């Protein structure tokens, strides 16, 4: 989801140097944040998506492909999330030196660092949001995995 990070930078666009998002540290930060976001969603939505038959979930894919339990698959995904959080923090720490090496002007440096910190802050807040969101509850599903309210029927079917 690097496009999401691009949306977050729109107000900084005039200040961001053309190549500021292409450096190794920023690329690593954006990659880690994007993957982290998807895997956190998969971790929290695994039970719901298993009940609704949605196949594209990292926890469910690991469970099905390895034959492990859902908890073991969730633990594996959690390990990936932890690694990505470490990668994000490492990239965030490396960014100032990278900007210095590129002789980034002070106003542009401030904009790049602000953008990077926004990405990191958003990424850190995802776990709290996912843990408190009713979106991942399963109490609104019928025995066959269909929602009793919420999603339109055609949104959950591949033929809709």
Q: Could you explain the architecture of this structure?
A:
The protein has 160 residues and is mostly helical. Helices cover 68% and strands 0% of the residues. The chain has helices at residues 2-8, 24-52, 58-66, 70-101, 106-132, 153-156. Helix 3 (58-66) crosses helix 4 (70-101) and helix 4 runs antiparallel to helix 5 (106-132). The protein is elongated, with a radius of gyration of 19 Å.
Counting DSSP H or I runs of 4 or more residues, the number of helices is: 6
Residue ranges: pLDDT <50 for 5 or more in a row?
A: 154-160
Order of helices and strands: HHHHHH
Strand content: under 5%
Approximate helicity band: 55-70%
Distance, first to last CA: 25 Å
Categorize the overall geometry. Answer: elongated
Highlighted features:
160 residues; elongated; disordered C terminus
Task: Describe the secondary-structure layout.
Elements: H1 2-8, H2 24-52, H3 58-66, H4 70-101, H5 106-132, H6 153-156
Helix pairs in contact: 2-4, 2-5, 3-4, 4-5
Q: What's this entry about, in short?
A:
The protein has 6 helices and no strands. The chain has 160 residues and is mainly alpha-helical.
């Amino acid at each position: 989801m690097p496009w999401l990070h691009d949306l977050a930078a729109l107000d900084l666009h005039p200040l961001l140097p053309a190549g500021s998002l292409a450096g190794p540290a920023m690329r690593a930060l954006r990659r880690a944040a994007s993957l982290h976001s998807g895997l956190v969603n998969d971790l929290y939505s695994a039970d719901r998506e298993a009940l609704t038959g949605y196949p594209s979930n990292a926890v469910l894919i690991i469970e099905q492909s390895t034959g492990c339990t859902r908890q073991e698959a969730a633990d594996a995904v959690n390990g990936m999330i932890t690694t990505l959080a470490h990668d994000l923090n490492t990239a965030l720490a490396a960014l100032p030196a990278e900007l210095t090496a590129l002789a980034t002007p002070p106003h542009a440096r401030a904009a790049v660092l602000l953008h990077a910190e926004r990405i990191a802050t958003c990424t850190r807040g995802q776990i709290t949001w996912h843990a408190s969101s009713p979106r991942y509850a399963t109490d609104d599903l019928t025995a066959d995995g269909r929602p009793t309210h919420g999603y339109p029927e055609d949104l959950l079917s591949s033929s809709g």
